[in-house]
Amino acid sequence: MAVTYQDILNNLKNNQYAPVYFLQGEESFFIDEVIKHIEKHAMEESLRSFNQVVVYGKDADIPNILNHAKGFPMMAERKVVIVKEAQEIAGFSKEENEKMLLHYMENPQPSTVLVFGYKYKTLDKRKKLGKTIDQKAVLMTATKFYDNQIPSWVESFVKSRNRQIDQKALQLIVEHIGNNLTRIANEIDKMLINIGEEPKIMAEHVYKNIGISKEYNVFELQKALSFRNVMKANEIITYFKSDPKSNPIIPIVANLFSFFNKLLLLHHAKDKSEKHLASLLGVHPFFVKEYIMAAKNYPLAKVVSNVRHLKIADMKSKGIDYPSQPEGEILKELIFNLIH
To answer: What DSSP designation does 283 have?
Structure first.
C-alpha cells in the first residue's frame, strides 16, 4: 500500500505499526526520519537489546534478515528488524531471494515490524516483487524535491520545531545549502541549539551559525547581478577566489543558473501579478520585486545568452570539453559575461 511520509508518521505516533515497511526513493531524508522514529519509539529502551535488530545491507542477506523477522519478541509487544541501506544487499533481486521475500510478504510475522530502507532506487511495480510489496507492505516512495518546493518545506520543518523563520534567513539557507534536506535539517537543528529560546530564526543567526559571510555570499552576488552592480559583484568574486574551499564553484553556478532560469519564466509569464509570479518562481512574495527589477535589467535575449554562459562555466568547472582553469578565473570570466 503506497502511502506518504506524513501518513506513516501519523500512524506511528498513534502507535499503529505495520508488519512490513518498504521505504524507497531518491530523497534519503524521509527514509532516515521514518527509521529514526521507529528505532526510538517502537519500544522502550530497556527492551531493545533483545527485541530490536539493526543490520546494514552490505553486511546482510535475505535469509538472515528473514530469520530475524520470523523470531518472536521477548517480554515485549513487538520485535523490530531494521535493514538500513537495503539497496546494498547482495543479490537482492536474485530469483531465490525474491521467492523468500514473496513468501514472507504473503504471511509476515504479525509481532514483527520489518523495515527496509532502500535508498536512491525504486522497485519496478510491473514485476512480481514490486507489485506484491505495493499490495502487502507499507510502501513509501521518497522523491527528490524540486528547487521551488524547498522554501515551503524549510518553513514547515522550522514550524515542526515550534519556531518561525525570517524570509531572508530562509532564502540564505536555501541558496547556500540547496536541496539537500538532510543537511538543511541538521544545520537548522544545530542553529536552534545555539540561538537558545529565540522564537524566530533571523538572517543574523544564519550568517553566524552556518558559516556564511554576511557581505560575500551567493545571495549577495545574485543581488549585485540583479542591479548590474559590477563593483559589488567583483568584490564578492574576489572574496570567493581567496577562499575557494569554502566557496566551491559548482553550487555557485547552480544557484546563478536557477536565478536566470527564474528570469526566463518571468519573461514568458502572461500574468505578471506579484502573487502569480511568487507561485510561478517558487519564491516568497517578499522577493518578487527583486526579480521584476532584474528582468528589466536583463532583457529576454540577454537572459538566454546568460543561461548559455552558465552552461559553459559549468562544463569548464567540471573539466568537460574545455582546458583546465582555476575556479576563480572561471568565475571572474562568468560574471563579466553575465553583466556585459
So the answer is: S
Candidates 34, 55, 31, 24; CA nearest to 130 is 24
Contacts of 182 (CB under 8 A, 6+ apart): 28, 29, 32
Amino acid letter, residue 294: A
Nearest to 165 by CA among 201, 219, 137, 191: 201
Q: From CA 270, how far away is CA 209, in angstroms rounded?
A: 41
CA-to-CA distance for 259 and 293, rounded, in angstroms? Answer: 13
What average pLDDT does the segment 302-316 reach?
A: 96
How far, in Å, CA of 169 to CA of 173, rounded?
Answer: 6
| 82 torsion bin: left (phi>0), alpha (psi -120 to 50), beta (else) | beta
Domain boundaries, the chain: 5-141, 147-209, 218-339
Q: How far is it, in rounded angstroms, from Cα 208 to Cα 97?
A: 51
pLDDT at position 2: 75
List the one residue out of 182, 139, 40 whose CA is nearest residue 54: 40
Q: What is the CATH number that goes with domain 218-339?
A: 1.20.272.10
Residue 51 backbone phi and psi in degrees, to 5: -125, 0
All three cell numbers of 193, joined, read 541549539
Supply 101's cell numbers: 521475500
Q: What is 5-141's CATH superfamily? A: P-loop containing nucleotide triphosphate hydrolases (3.40.50.300)
Q: What class, spelled out in words, does domain 147-209 have in CATH? A: mainly alpha
**Cα–Cα distance for residue pair 2/88, rounded to 1 Å:** 22
Work out the percent of the chain whose per-residue pLDDT is above 90. Answer: 81
* pLDDT of the residue at 322: 86
Domains 5-141 and 218-339 alike in fold: no
